[in-house]
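Incident review: delayed structure delivery

Summary: a single-chain prediction request sat in the queue longer than the usual turnaround. Root cause was a stuck worker, restarted by the on-call engineer. No data loss occurred. The affected request and its eventual output are reproduced below so the record is complete for anyone auditing the incident later.

Affected input:
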Amino acid sequence: MADLFATPQSVSSLNQKIKSLIEATFLNVLVEGEVSNLTCHNSGHYYFSIKDSQSAIKCVLFRGNVASGLNFELKNTQKVQIIGHISVYAPRGEYQIICSKIMLAGQGAEEFEKMKVRLSAKGYFDSSHKKALPKFPKKIALITSNTGAALQDMLRVAMMRWQCIKIVNYDTLVQGVEASRDIARNIKRADSLFGSHEAFDVIIIARGGGSTEDLWAFNQEEVAEAIFEARTPVVSAIGHEIDYVISDFVADMRAPTPSAAMEMILPDSNTWLLYLDELYESLDSAFKHHIEALEKEITHLGFLLGSLSFDTRLKNREREIEDLKKIFTHKMEQFLESKKIDTLALKFEVASNEFIKDKEKQLHEISLMLRGKNLTKLCENGYAQILYEGKPIDIEKLDKDSHIEIVSTKALLKAVVEDRLPNF
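Output delivered after worker restart:
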């Protein structure tokens, strides 16, 4: 109950408050009723009322909206559907519907179907025009209202799923007379960055649930045209899952709700983290197996290289001689035992030992000689081989002006004997 002792407000002030409240609340209405008190003014404006059995409300269709908002002859007693917004005339405290479109009853669904047929014929719905959405979008443009719940729902889902994303919202009217124009304009603004370093990967047009009239802006041809002409992939996320609007058919992808749009276009970070862990383990295991195989191959090659070296071959020959020595000794022992000649056997053993020692000495001398003649060893000590006409030659046999070659394992030099000094 109002305070009787409070300062009263003026009628104008109250009417202004009522005007602000009503016009902000009823931005877009769809009303069905019967036309009455129709007047076509000389200015081209239509004034009339729309009524049912219990109530009536004044309406006006201004001349600027006649061409686009009325496609039949308006008459009294016609049952029509009106799309528009509520306006309050504060000086008289009266309100009325400012009409943007008038249709015969049942014509709304008919208009929707006609537009679908018309745009389909123009190729707006063809799958060949649908653009693929990126698997990992980096930058997304939202075309929705800053104050709508749809924006917060989408931001919440985006932060849960994939935080490696930049989101820019273009504050947009999503219902009312100017909504379709604002939606189309912001789609074009976002798409104008295509091809630049600031380009968006995806554009999402979004609005929460509402009545048919609330969603009507997304049934307008100018919105469909802006989506079709956009070079950036466009996702339509309007209303609830059961709601279908024209933008859904034209867009590159339709999402049942705004939050579902984010779930559909953004990867799940938790899923990808698990996948990366599995991939790391797989790569680590494969790398270890590869290293083990290389180590085995290196060991095998090292063994082959060792078996081909000079030292290894010399050791193999020494082992063969040692084996032959053992065989010879064993045979001689068998021979002596068979002949039962102990003295001779003793002398033979002494002689054989001397023989073996002599051969061992010769083997040692040969080994030293072979090691000394090993070209690699000699070159490591600064020695080189002298060739004459491609063959080794004693230096005493060379004369003055003889053309010779000096060869090591790492170099080949050609030289001429400048002089021959007396023997010393």
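Verification: The radius of gyration is 52 Å.
Action items: add queue-age alerting; document worker restart procedure.
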